Sequence to fold (443 residues):
Amino acid sequence: MSQHIVSLGPTKLNGQITISGSKNASLPILAASLLTKGPVRLSNVAKLKDISVLLSLLASLNVHVTLSKDLLVLDSSQAHFAELDSSQAGQIRASVLLLGPLLARFQHVVLPTPGGCKIGKRPIDFHLHAIEQLGAQIRYDGQNVIASAPHGLRGGRVVMPLPSVTATENALMAAIGAKGQTRIENPSQDSEVLELIRFLQAMGYSITIEKEAFTVISDGPITTQSVDFHIMSDRMEIGTWIAAAGITRSHISLKHSGFNQLDTVFSHARKIGILLDEQPGCLFVDGRGPLQAQSFKTGFHPEFPTDLQAPFAALNASCPGPWSIEETIWESRFHHLEQFREFGIENLTLEKNLANYNSPHCSELIGSQVEGRDLRGTCALVLLSLAARGQSTIFQSHHIERGYQFFIEKLNILGANIKQYTNYDFQAKARSNLQSASTTVIV
Ligand code: EPU
Fold:
């Protein structure tokens, strides 16, 4: 159901919030729960839309899922092969993460086209190439990728053309079911991938990490080992709140349960003028300034992460310029920058994946009506609205629930004047009234 956010600015933030578990670490770990027949007990899994959809897909494979307090328990001892529901798989990009584990467990997968944010073409050729190197045969029936390894997977050499995050994760998970040694070269070394490796190691699997390769040694069958695992804090959420503190010129603190690989982002934020004080379990962020926008270019780890491009674009837009941003990972991740103009930002030119703001002055931001299109971009629009004078409405704000747990609630804890509304679907309501009325007549 579509939602919109109404935000009244400008606002100052103040206080402490707790960072949720990492979305992009949780997703592959949930998929990897298929790689043991023993119970998997996970803590700190973020309660997000993408996670719910992946859990429903796992449940459709007869994985038993229970949630009590903060503990998510998955039991795949009775899991069986099933074709994945295309309407569910099509809602999230992470459905692609079932490719490797299903192949390892059942030697057969029927994978409908994955969905996800519209930020680029998002092909899956690296994923398919990886499983092919491990002996899978692949065909496409017009709607589904069908992969099978009737005689089992065998270890092999997988070379990633680019260090793709989820393709590396799929290669690792497929390799668990491949007899012998698998070497994955040029893998993504992002911290979410390393978290998956720690989880697989906790299951008892042998994976070694070298500078530019991972080696998996497996004897084929799936283990029965039980696993207890705490998911690290979401580094993209931490980066987003650093940007929020800067945009609102505020001082906030972020409680967390461990993260890494934010060095590039921290040094970029410090160049802007944000003070960061790292204490055990808590990061103090002082964005009171003075701040100065800084140009940046996204890239593969250890360069500036693309998932923080939008929040830091909003931070730049709230500071004196000039600045530029180059997005090198996704072809269509500038929708939020187009919408920034609605807040009164002039002198902003967008050419393919290059944004340029040529003025040394900070634009005066005024409340506006804008529309989100993807997770990070919609979040950036909300952040910018916090610095704009007057009321802003951000339509299609449901995208935020895919990746930020309790985002609006956390903003309210910090003192923002912001509310989320779920749009009333008059037609759907009328239809369901009609259906219940006709049911009553038949009875
Ligand atoms: N690519 C291909 N072929 C493939 C796979 C990737 O050409 O088979 C290209 C992509 O088109 C892109 C580049 O390689 O240009 C990198 O894409 P990657 O595969 O690393 O992205 P992903 O695994 O689909 C994950 C995150 C994204 C994040 C990217 C980059 C998850 C579930 N998603 O996606 O997160 O932007 O890595 O870091 O881990 C988000 O959280 O908002 C999000 C989009």
About this structure: The CA atoms of residues 129 and 325 lie 32 Å apart.
